[in-house]
Design brief:
single chain, 156 residues, alpha+beta, seven-stranded antiparallel beta sheet, 7 strands
């Protein structure tokens, strides 16, 4: 299921001392992701579903405006280093990924059934392994690059 959320959010946080407040504000939050919802295991008592397991199939897209003392911190960057925006957004995505990006699920129990194993619902064991090997390919564009950006494969 594709979900998209946009908001005119305005959250203001003042930290510091009363004679010198340090203000942080978060504005205009956007979020989009591809969500997987799994309802299992089936149980013989109402609501007949033991838990709902939710995970994102890929890292979600997160975007927002972050200001420090009224200045847009998302546009601050140091040459040769990631911008503040990239660092903050990467940390948020990393937190989301460790919590609920497939194959890890966020589990919401609906039943008190003893047979529900929360650990197996959070990180289910694989059901099988798929292995394949490519024997030959023709007329493929060179898509690999090194750290400088030059193509590293031979050919056209």
């Amino acid at each position: 299921m594709q979900i998209k959320w946009s908001s005119d959010l305005f959250a203001l946080l003042e930290v510091g001392f009363s004679y010198f407040p340090f203000t942080l504000s978060l504005e205009h939050a956007n979020f989009s992701a591809l969500l997987r919802i799994k309802m299992s295991p089936l149980v013989p008592i109402q609501p007949f579903i033991g838990a709902i397991s939710v995970s994102f199939l890929r890292k979600p897209h997160v975007d927002f405006s972050f200001k420090v003392m009224g200045l847009d911190a998302m546009s601050v960057s140091i040459p040769g280093v990631l911008s503040v925006a990239d660092n903050v957004i990467d940390k948020i995505k990393e937190a989301i990924q460790t919590t609920c990006v497939y194959p890890t699920f966020l589990v919401i129990p609906l039943s008190d059934a003893e047979s529900i194993k929360n650990s197996e619902l959070t990180r289910p064991p694989p059901k099988g392994i798929l292995r394949f090997s490519i024997h030959e390919a023709k007329d493929l564009p060179r898509m690999d690059t090194n750290s400088v950006g030059a193509r590293t494969s031979s050919g056209n």
